[in-house]
Amino acid sequence: MTPDVTxxxxxxxxxxxSVDWVAIAPPLIAAAVALIVLLADLFLSPSRKPxxxxxxxxxxxxxxxxxxxxxxxxxxxxxxTANPDACSYxxxxxxxxxxxxxxxxxxxxxxxxxxxxKEKLPAGEFWFLxxxxxxxxxxxxxxxxxxxxxxxxxxxxxxxxxxxxxxxxDRLSSEAALKFFLSSVTATAVxxxxxxFVYAATGTLHLTEIATKLATVPGPLGTVAKTGVVLTLxxxxxxxxxxxxxxxxxDTYVGAPLPVAAYLSVVGKAVGFSGLILVxxxxxxxxxxxxxxxxxxxxxxxxxxxxAAALRQSATRAHSAVRLLAWSSVGxxxxxxxxxxxxAYSSGSQVGATVAYALMYAVVxxxxxxxxxxxxxxxxxxxxxxxxxxxxERPLAxxxxxxxxxxxxxxxxxxxxxxxKVTVFSAAVDAGLGWLAVVMAVNVVVAxxxxxxxxxxxxxxxxxxxxxAEAARPRVPAPLTVAIALTAFVGVVLSGVxxxxxxxxxxxxx
Length: 510
Hints:
The chain crosses the membrane at residues 21-44, 51-70, 94-114, 126-143, 149-166, 178-199, 228-249, 261-284, 290-312, 324-345, 351-375, 396-420, 432-452, 480-501. This is NADH-quinone oxidoreductase subunit N. Its main location: membrane. With 510 residues, the chain is mostly helical. It has 20 helices and two strands. The longest helix is centred in the middle third of the chain and has 32 residues, at 171-202.
């Protein structure tokens, strides 16, 4: 072999990278099972379609189990050969916790959906879309370049459009899917424009390299870089349902199947906030003076609008229970934004408070939606008044829902909700954002009213005309019972060991 050929061969070999299959296993398993479900749907008879749901549940359990080797340390893959520190995929503490959250949320959504796919929804399409979205959601927190980040975000979002509109012949479902689609496409377009500006100013897509090069952007490109940062943040503000980009939330939650609304409220929110944390704390630290004040104002605006709208929900309006949970999720998004804004004024470690709060919110909000799905089986309008006397009819479900609502309010016995709020409040105070801490405290007090009002309705005596005959009471599917019991158990454990909130508050990206 001549020297020139030998040199060329060596150069080619240096471009070949080894793949850390253990690191990429969680999203890879979810994607592989999605393909299996899609192919199996072609060959299974209609009577055997329920098998697809159990394949999905098994796949999500396997994806969760694949996280075990990743619980300590940090693993990276798809790195640049010229700069091994610049990688496209990194599993650290932050990525591990968020991946566990989104896969666990997808698993609980699957449990809530088993009965619906037998009765109302096309099984094959539903399970394929859910797994595809979960694969994108699991990929995103480990993404460390803007291209992977955008692709993961869209893989998580695009199937969600179809999931929202999957109730065939339902006008509300079609309208919800269209509104969700249009708002999300607009957000993506704005975000891609911002990403292109950032790339033009820095010449790289890797987050760590962007952070280095943004600090030394030449004067003529400074405006381009700053515009790119702002547009990228606006795109993620849509994804996180931050005000004033929250308008799609209530109608989307009402029109979507209840398990899908639960999925969007938890997994969709985790995906949006993960991306926001990565671009701000990892990629744009040198522009903290731009995104810090902007996120602080967005946090105050979001929690205030969300809680004010939740207060105005009429108890007799159709779907008022789901609407209240939707507006509550907007208010909770405001709390989640606080530590990210605080990171601009102190250090990136503040984002751990967002992780701790997101974990608490995911568990109890999924539980609240699970009980709402149970009530909707007998009372499809799902009004707040439909929950009157729930304790007399289904005492365990009423106690579980009361516990979930008290956790969201931050009241005992939902100690985990209190500790999570204190952790977020402390992040604002430590960063010198006293005014934001005051706004948050006022909003927490305001939210107590509608959470406690709903809790009180559960224990009121039912009207005589509303008391159902025992034989007419719908049977609760076993998977739905498991979902309620599992979320209640995890919530009680977290409330019994509130130090876990402080543990997750210490999660960092470094």
